[in-house]
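Dear U.,

Please find below the material for section 3 of the report. The protein was modelled together with 3-hydroxy-3-methylglutaryl-coenzyme A; I have listed the sequence and SMILES used, followed by the predicted complex structure.
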Amino acid sequence: MPTYPERVRILDVSPRDGLQNEKQPVPAAVKIELVHRLQAAGLREIEVTSYVSPKWVPQMADNHEVMAGLQRRPGVRYAVLTPNLKGFEAALADRPDEIVVFGAASEAFSQRNINCSIAQSIERFAPVVEAALQAGIAVRGAMSCTVGCPYEGDVPPERVAMLAGLMKSIGVQRVDVADTIGVGTPLKVQRAIEAAARHYDLDHISAHFHDTYGQALANTLAALQLGVWNVQASVAGLGGCPYAKGATGNVATEDVVYMLHGMGIDTGIDLDALVDTGAWISAQLGRATASRAARALLARRG
Ligand SMILES: CC(C)(COP(=O)([O-])OP(=O)([O-])OC[C@H]1O[C@@H](n2cnc3c(N)ncnc32)[C@H](O)[C@@H]1OP(=O)([O-])[O-])[C@@H](O)C(=O)NCCC(=O)NCCSC(=O)C[C@@](C)(O)CC(=O)[O-]
C-alpha cells in the first residue's frame, strides 16, 4: 500500500494561471474578489498575478491594482510571477510574500514563453532571486514542460534535473514540476519529480498539473505517493498558458480537495465555500465549471 502525507498544502493559481489566458478583460475587482473568496475558503497560498509584458499577456496588466486591492489575511502567502528584474522591481512595491521565476525544461518553450534560451533565463533570474532573498521575499521556481512540450514533444527527465540544478545554483528555494500541456501520466510525472528531487527535497517540490488529457488528478495522486505534499490547482479548473495552444486549465481545486478529504487527508479548506467560489467565478466568466466534483456537489444541492 502506498503511504500518503497526513496534510496537503494547496496553492490555488486561478487568479494568475487561471485568468491569464482569458480573452475578455476580467475587471480587477473580480480578480480581487476571487482572491478574497479563496482565502475565506481556507486557501493559504494564492498566486495572484504576474509582472510580465502587457503586450505579451494583457490580462495581467492590472497587477498593481489587484495587489493594492487585497485585504490580506495573516498566514496567507500571496505569490506573483516575475520573469526579470523589471518585473521584480515593479512587484516589490506591491509587497508579495513570494516571487516566482519561471523557466522551462524545453528550449523551444523557453523561447516562446519568455523570449530567451534556458541559459539566458537563468542569467536573468539570478539577480531577481538575489534581490528577492535580500528583501526577505521567498523564491519559487516554476519549471514548465517537465513531461512534454507543445513544440518539442516528449521531454526526458534529464532535462528536468538539469533545470532543477540550475534553479538550485542561483538560490531558488523551491520548485514546481509543471506539466504545462497536461500530457503526463502518473509514471511520467513521477519520473519528472524524481529528476527534480536530485536537487530539491520533496518538501520543496510542488506538483503543478494541467488537465488537458484528463490525467491531472491521477498525476496529483502519483505525486503524493512519492511524498510531495505541496499541490497546485485552479478553482473551477480555470486556465491555460498563452504559449501552449489547446492546453486546458490546471486540475480543479475542488476535485483535489474532494479527493484528499475522501482519503482522510487534511487541507484546511472548506469544500462547500470552495465550490461556491468556483461557481461564482465561472458565472463571472460566463462558462460552466470544469470541476467534476463541483458539478456533482452543486447538482446534489439542487
Ligand atoms: C519575459 C518577457 C517580459 C521578455 O520579453 P522581451 O521582449 O524579451 O523583453 P525585453 O527586455 O526585450 O523588453 C521588451 C519590452 O517589454 C517590456 N518588459 C520587459 N520586461 C517586462 C516586465 N517584467 N513587465 C512589463 N514589461 C516588461 C520592456 O520594457 C520593453 O517594452 P517596450 O520598450 O517595447 O515598450 C516577455 O517574454 C513576457 O512578458 N512573456 C510573458 C510570459 C508569461 O507571462 N507567460 C505565462 C506565464 S508562465 C506559465 O503560465 C507557466 C506556468 C508558470 O504556469 C507553469 C506551467 O504550467 O508550465
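For the text of the report, you could mention the following: The mean pLDDT is 97.

Regards,
Y.
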